[in-house]
């Protein structure tokens, strides 16, 4: 094993991940309470050790209860006096909370921080959920699109078809791959291998949501929560496990699709390239990549932004087996947002937790062999807020 270059950096030392899906827990407070004690216990710390709390909850209408940072005190009374802050950055809300915690520690303001991402999405109707999610796009130009956020990404998929040819079969292969991977993920909302035939065929069970996107091309409405404990290097050094950030980068792009080429995913490319350069590696040096497949067209465009294929040829990453679970660079071994689920505030925290499980050999039935370096890419909106991390155990 290579000597980790991140030894001596802020690290993840513990986590707790709920199952994703339609859960009986009624609200964000109860979801937060379901994971925080377990994460602290896993990290081997007590509430009195925590110097700061960073909460990721999107909300924007899923609940009338705001001020979610204050909910931690109600869910875990022992943390009532710890400074807590809530962050929101669309579907990258969880990563925003995590990066704020890392900045907090690296600035010297604290030694241990708690990060918790949570979302209760199933308490509203599907139609209302669609309206709420559209708040993550540029309202003056995009809020009237039919079929909600699926309609926004359907427009991107249609533009891809016009420029490069119909990607429908490729999108179905991405969906089938991720559902196949999700079978062995104990946290996944859907643990069923749907297969290419089902994913590629429009049917009563797989209707067209927003042409050309079928139901299997769209991530799920989910409830869930994930908590991480991150610590300064002198604390992490004595922890039972420690996963450092060999690199991390955050890049933004114009919010309105009209201000940019929607197929370029330029912000994705900038964030990813910055993280790879900082880590001193190439993308193919990674052993795993967990990426943001909110819609299958997003994963396809990310292949191209990451340099796994030339523009317009992302399908080759699938056709050559590169991104399969047994490929040279497994992508979304967890099942991704497609099978695992997508509780907005929890997603970015979940992706980092899953990667941490892999590099520490704690991923159970979804464990890949010899994972030393794991990549995570989480994005908010239509590739507006882009977070790229390279994780390594030390």
TrEMBL record:
Pfam families associated with the record: Thiolase_C_1, Thiolase_N
Domain Thiolase C-terminal: 251-392
Top-level taxon in the UniProt lineage: Bacteria
GO molecular function (one): acyltransferase activity, transferring groups other than amino-acyl groups
Thiolase N-terminal domain sequence ranges: 23-231
PANTHER family: ACETYL-COA C-ACETYLTRANSFERASE (PTHR42870), NON-SPECIFIC LIPID-TRANSFER PROTEIN-LIKE 2 (PTHR42870:SF1)
Stated name of the protein: Thiolase domain-containing protein
The organism of origin for this protein: Nocardioides pocheonensis
């Amino acid at each position: 094993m290579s000597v980790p270059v991140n030894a001596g950096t802020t690290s993840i030392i513990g986590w707790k991940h709920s199952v994703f899906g339609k859960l009986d827990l009624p609200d964000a407070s109860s979801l937060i309470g379901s994971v925080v004690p377990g994460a602290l216990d896993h990290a081997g710390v007590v509430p009195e050790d925590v110097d700061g709390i960073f909460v990721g909850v999107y909300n924007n209408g899923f609940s009338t209860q705001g001020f979610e940072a204050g909910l931690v005190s109600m869910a875990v009374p022992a943390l009532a006096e710890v400074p807590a802050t809530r962050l929101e950055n669309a579907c990258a809300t969880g990563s925003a909370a995590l990066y704020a915690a890392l900045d907090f520690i690296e600035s010297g303001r604290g030694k241990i921080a708690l990060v918790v991402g949570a979302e209760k999405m199933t308490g509203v109707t599907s139609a209302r959920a669609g309206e709420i999610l559209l708040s993550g796009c540029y309202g003056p130009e995009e809020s009237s699109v039919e079929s909600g956020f699926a309609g926004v990404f359907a427009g991107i998929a249609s533009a891809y078809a016009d420029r490069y040819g119909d990607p429908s079969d490729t999108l179905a292969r991405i969906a089938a791959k991720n559902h196949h991977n999700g079978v062995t993920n104990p946290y996944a909302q859907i643990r069923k291998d749907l297969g290419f035939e089902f994913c590629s065929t429009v049917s009563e069970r797989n209707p067209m949501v927003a042409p050309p996107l079928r139901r299997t091309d769209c991530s799920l409405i989910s409830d869930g929560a994930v908590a991480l404990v991150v610590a300064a290097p002198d604390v992490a050094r004595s922890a039972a496990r420690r996963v450092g950030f060999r690199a991390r980068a955050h890049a933004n792009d114009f919010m309105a699709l009209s201000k940019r080429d929607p197929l370029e995913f330029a912000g994705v490319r900038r964030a990813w390239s910055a993280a790879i350069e900082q880590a001193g590696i190439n993308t193919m040096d990674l052993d795993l990549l967990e990426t943001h497949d909110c819609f299958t067209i997003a994963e396809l465009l990310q292949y191209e932004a990451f340099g796994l294929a030339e523009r317009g040829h992302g399908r080759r990453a699938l056709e050559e087996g590169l991104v399969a679970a047994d490929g040279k660079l497994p992508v979304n071994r967890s099942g991704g947002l497609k099978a695992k689920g997508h509780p907005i505030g929890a997603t970015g925290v979940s992706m980092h937790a899953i990667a941490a499980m892999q590099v520490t050999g704690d991923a159970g039935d979804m464990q890949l062999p010899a994972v030393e370096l794991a990549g995570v890419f989480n994005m908010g909106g239509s590739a507006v807020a882009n977070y790229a991390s390279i994780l390594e155990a030390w």
